[in-house]
Amino acid sequence: MTIQQEPVKNIADLRREYTRGGLRRKDLPDAPMTLFTQWLSQACEAQLPDPTAMCVATVDEKGQPYQRIVLLKEYDDNSMIFYTNLGSRKAQHLSHNPKISLHFPWHTLERQVMVLGEAEKLSAKEVIKYFHSRPRDSQIGAWVSRQSSRISARGVLEGKFLEISQKFMRGEVPLPDFWGGYRVRFHTMEFWQGGEKRLHDRFIYQKEGDCWKIDRLAP
């Protein structure tokens, strides 16, 4: 018997108050990655599901934006790194337009971080090092999926996984030539902290030479 789910009658009425805290200009560090590292650490400590998950936005050759969730794997003071299939839709977009946006939605902590920058391919040395640090099943999975390509059924993937598992049963799984990663060199980072009465705190960091300009934005 099929159980019918009642539709939400009015989604416009769904709201909650944000009360977890504020963000003040006097408390901001000079560089954005100091605050980002603090917030990411707190997201991990709060045991949020997938705290490194970020929405990656790219644009195709017709100007159509696309979004998908990818995991942040490394970062430093000037860049963030993720890995993907180089034949994927996102990789195709980045090949003709390297401009990219990243978004971290830490809703439970009433926080968001938005990043703007440009993506560049990682070197083969960087990719190989990370690839061989992954679990073996993830390495095999990279061989199985021609990301974003059309397939007839899930069974195609499962059959391919079994085939590749048997092929590389002994020894190291080699790096596929169609798998790699990107370094996003960012020039803008925005921090959003929810506030009561919808008076949210928003601060934007923008790179100016070797320094960062900080401005408060209206919510």
TrEMBL record:
It catalyses: pyridoxamine 5'-phosphate + O2 + H2O = pyridoxal 5'-phosphate + H2O2 + NH4(+); pyridoxine 5'-phosphate + O2 = pyridoxal 5'-phosphate + H2O2. Homodimer. Residues 41-166 form the Pyridoxamine 5'-phosphate oxidase N-terminal domain. Keywords: Flavoprotein, FMN, Oxidoreductase, Pyridoxine biosynthesis. This is Pyridoxine/pyridoxamine 5'-phosphate oxidase. One of its GO terms (biological process) is pyridoxine biosynthetic process. Pathway: Cofactor metabolism; pyridoxal 5'-phosphate salvage; pyridoxal 5'-phosphate from pyridoxine 5'-phosphate: step 1/1; Cofactor metabolism; pyridoxal 5'-phosphate salvage; pyridoxal 5'-phosphate from pyridoxamine 5'-phosphate: step 1/1. Transmembrane segments: none annotated. The keyword Flavoprotein applies.
